[in-house]
Amino acid sequence: MSRLDKSNSSNGSGLYVPLPDDNIGSKLLRSMGWSGGGLGLKSQGIEEPITVNQELVKRAGLGMCGEGSTILFRKQANELIKQYCSEDSEHDLIFSTDFSKEERKIMHLIAHKYNLKTTSIGKNEARHLVVSKKVFIWDVAKKLLASGGSNERYDLI
């Protein structure tokens, strides 16, 4: 158990517990003339210390959104990709560059589950995901012959 585990479990709920008045920081401030209240020339500063909302997630670190947001994202991505599969569109599904590497990875896995083709295009912050349906050459040729030899994506030569 780490030191963070112990501090979160001290009151049973992991909530913020105020420090007692005999702590080292309080003693130091009082020795410099602080009588309580806000800091600053006109006592305009904050009176309560800034608290950290710590949630210990195995191998995640501070600022990690947690498992709930990943589950929600996975569910929403699954619904979107499932809807794309059920449509009779030949267009690609192009995702924004706003998604993180982990989110793109989740979408890749979901798309592969539905037998879709995925490609990540670009580098670093400009990287985005393109999901498309797998097409067979004979199906494309039949559609092109039926539509007069070309469509918005292919030309028959």
Automatic annotation (TrEMBL):
Q: Where is the R3H domain?
A: 71-135
Domain of life (superkingdom): Eukaryota
Q: What is this protein called?
A: (California timema) hypothetical protein
The record lists the organism as Timema californicum (California timema)
Domain G-patch span(s) in chain numbering: 21-67
Molecular function GO labels:
nucleic acid binding
Pfam family for this entry, one: G-patch
